[in-house]
């Protein structure tokens, strides 16, 4: 019989496996039958796990005690009710779970399954929804966000719009949905919801218009594995209100060779055009700016290409013109939703944790909360704004942090203004 071989993998707690090589096969030998060279006593794995569990329970109890005291010290201006708007409907939740993600609330609580959960890291864009809010000056903001990264508790005073509200088969589809489908920009469809919501967010966030290049550059956060990006970009570039030298040729015509019937048919783009045809074109073209002679679609001087190739069809002309007042769902007025300081207490879990959410609205309140939490271990407290670090933090943390306290600093008034004085 050969010498016994001890293999000890690098695990925590370490597992001891003894294997003895015997003729005709292998036989396991109990650890007690083998003399270990180490003089240290081997603690059974079960006991080590139990000890670690007991240590965590004691730490969690100490954290809860500190947090309980911090909450008790808050005055009555702090509210425990979350208020926001989802697809035009007001929502109120008492003590929501501080760890609950927006995407999970949308899909599992509200049962709105159009929003997809793909990578869970904010990289694929399948979970995209529109977030609307007003700032301190009353200005309305619209942004497409990754709902797989946003925590539900951060939705206070905001409006969330999902793809079901933008358009559906019962109420009618939105132009973003119609154009994506008509241009063959959807295949399996899993990413299509995110593509639509990203384009819808761009339209809401840029009421003065977008160029074709701007639209293309805003889709690096939406991944498609099967359709390919050409039909997706073809569909969404139809929303461009002005072109540029890089994209105008591809955007302007389905065909640029002059094929078709009627006047100018068969003529190339360099063929001469009569004054009468050019005048008729300028009188009827919706993109020609009389004062400057510029084409609002291409962003350059009118060349008459549309008149030469009038038989070729502009992609935009295939669809009803986009009209926000007609096609976009109404967004409720958020100005009446006052900024409030919030504190939410999660339920005590089996591990003894009780996640807690603080949302101060002034620097003084933030400092008060911070001072009351100074004794807590750093890995249990997290400052939150958009929570985007969640998508990548698992790759650089040797041990996943067990956050039990979240401090939302996104609404601290002093962090949203800039003051310049003589000492600055």
Fold and architecture overview:
This protein has 424 residues and is an alpha+beta fold. It contains 12 helices and 14 strands. It has helices at residues 45-72, 102-109, 163-166, 175-182, 192-205, 212-217, 229-236, 248-252, 275-284, 305-308, 324-327, 363-372; strands spanning 5-7, 17-22, 25-28, 81-86, 89-94, 128-134, 140-146, 159-161, 288-289, 294-295, 342-345, 356-359, 381-384, 405-408. A 5-stranded mixed sheet has the order 5-4-8-6-7. A 4-stranded mixed sheet has the order 11-12-14-13, with no helix packed on it. Strand 9 and strand 10 form a beta hairpin. Helix 4 crosses helix 7.
Going by helix content, strand content and strand pairing, the class is alpha+beta
Q: What is the number of beta strands? A: 14
Estimated radius of gyration = 31 Å
**Number of helical segments?**
12
Spans of 5+ residues with little confidence (pLDDT < 50)? 1-23, 25-34, 245-271, 308-313
- Strand order within the widest beta sheet: 5-4-8-6-7
How would you characterize the largest beta sheet?
Answer: 5 strands, mixed
Would you summarize the structure shown here?
The chain is α+β, with helices and mostly antiparallel strands and 424 residues long. Helices cover 26% and strands 15% of the residues.
Topology of this structure?
Blueprint: E1 5-7, E2 17-22, E3 25-28, H1 45-72, E4 81-86, E5 89-94, H2 102-109, E6 128-134, E7 140-146, E8 159-161, H3 163-166, H4 175-182, H5 192-205, H6 212-217, H7 229-236, H8 248-252, H9 275-284, E9 288-289, E10 294-295, H10 305-308, H11 324-327, E11 342-345, E12 356-359, H12 363-372, E13 381-384, E14 405-408
Parallel strand pairs: 4-8, 12-14, 13-14
Antiparallel strand pairs: 1-2, 2-3, 4-5, 6-7, 6-8, 9-10, 11-12
Helix pairs in contact: 4-7
């Amino acid at each position: 019989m050969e010498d016994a071989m001890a293999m000890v993998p690098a695990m925590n707690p370490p597992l001891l496996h003894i294997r003895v090589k015997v003729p005709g096969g292998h036989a396991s030998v109990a650890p007690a039958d083998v003399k270990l060279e180490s003089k240290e006593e081997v603690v059974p794995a079960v006991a080590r796990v139990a000890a670690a569990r007991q240590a965590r329970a004691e730490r969690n109890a100490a954290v809860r005690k500190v947090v309980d005291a911090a909450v008790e010290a808050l005055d009555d201006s702090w509210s425990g009710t979350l208020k926001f708007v989802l697809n035009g409907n007001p929502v109120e939740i008492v003590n929501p779970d501080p760890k609950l993600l927006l995407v999970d609330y949308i899909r599992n609580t509200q049962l709105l399954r159009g929003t997809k959960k793909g990578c869970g890291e904010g990289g694929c864009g399948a979970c995209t929804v529109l977030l609307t809010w007003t700032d301190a000056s009353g200005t309305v903001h619209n942004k497409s966000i990754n709902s797989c990264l946003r925590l539900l508790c951060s939705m206070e005073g905001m409006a969330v719009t999902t793809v079901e509200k933008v358009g559906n088969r019962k109420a009618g589809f939105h132009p973003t949905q119609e154009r994506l489908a008509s241009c063959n920009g959807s295949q399996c469809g899993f990413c299509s919801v995110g593509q639509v919501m990203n384009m819808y967010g761009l339209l809401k966030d840029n009421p003065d218009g977008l160029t074709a290049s701007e639209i293309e550059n805003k889709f690096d956060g939406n991944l498609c594995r099967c359709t390919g990006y050409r039909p997706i970009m073809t569909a969404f570039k139809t929303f461009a209100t002005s072109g540029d030298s890089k994209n105008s040729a591809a955007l302007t015509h389905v065909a640029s060779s002059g094929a078709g019937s009627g006047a100018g048919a068969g003529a190339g783009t360099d063929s001469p055009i009569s004054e009468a045809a050019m005048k008729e074109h300028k009188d009827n073209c919706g993109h020609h700016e009389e004062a400057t002679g510029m084409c609002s679609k291409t962003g350059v001087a009118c060349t008459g290409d549309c008149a030469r190739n009038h038989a070729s069809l502009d992609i935009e002309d295939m669809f009803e013109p986009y009209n926000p007042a007609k096609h976009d769902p109404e967004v409720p007025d958020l100005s009446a939703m006052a900024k409030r300081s919030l504190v939410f207490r999660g339920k005590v879990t089996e591990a003894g944790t009780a996640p807690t959410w603080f949302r101060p609205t002034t620097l003084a309140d933030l400092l008060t909360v911070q001072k009351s939490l100074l004794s807590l271990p750093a890995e249990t407290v997290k400052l939150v704004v958009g929570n985007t670090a969640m998508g990548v933090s698992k790759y650089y943390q040797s041990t996943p942090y067990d956050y039990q306290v979240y401090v939302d600093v996104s609404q601290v008034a002093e962090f949203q203004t800039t003051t310049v004085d003589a000492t600055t």
